[in-house]
Amino acid sequence: MGDRTGATGRARSDDDQGAAPGGLPSALPIVVGISGSSGALLGRRAVEVLGALARPVHLTYTPACRQVWPEEVGHPLDDDLALWRERYGVRICEPDDFRAPMSSGSFPTAGMIVIPCSMRTVSAIAYGTSSNLLERAADVTIKEGRRLVVVPREAPLSAIHLENLLRLARLGVRVVPPIPQFYTRPQSADEIIDRIARRAVAQLDIPEALPHSARWHGPTAP
Known about the structure:
Elements (H helix, E strand, L loop, with lengths): L3 E2 L5 E2 L17 E5 L5 H13 L4 E5 L1 H11 L3 H12 L2 E2 L19 E6 L1 H9 L5 H11 L4 E5 L6 H12 L3 E2 L13 H14 L20
Parallel strand pairs: 3-4, 3-6, 4-5, 6-7, 7-8
Antiparallel strand pairs: 1-2
């Protein structure tokens, strides 16, 4: 069943499990969740990085993401959703679609990244209170023992936030705060965003997401 778009123009889920561009056989999909926290450009770049690597992506978002997206990106979320479907074959799943494959542990994936991840979403994941598809998919990822990466976006962090993040870390979740790497001497905001997104994506056991200069090439000969 192909992609379907409702009368409002919002992308709806379909039964396509995703494929690499050009119809190439796909590996297990990566689940991408984008919350309503500030940092929409990080989520956008992460999708672009995975798409460029021809990694199949199943994507969902929170309702608040639709509000933040145009404020930070400059156009509606639907514009990017349509582009990602066409360019990368990304499967889009709506927040209330609990019939989507990612909501079930029987659907195999190569892990999940939540970028950016609001503190509300951090709390929901930490305590298993799944009120939308993103939170349910993260719950499934944890219970199935798969890699989960969260990119928390908040400052300053309260004791509540830190305790929730610690709870996730103890469950094996990779917590990757969006901290710029100033030692690389970035020349623009876009470069900072790219580096942060790539570093987070690489935590899904995708080292090729890192810039070539940032990869480990083994010990240097004396």
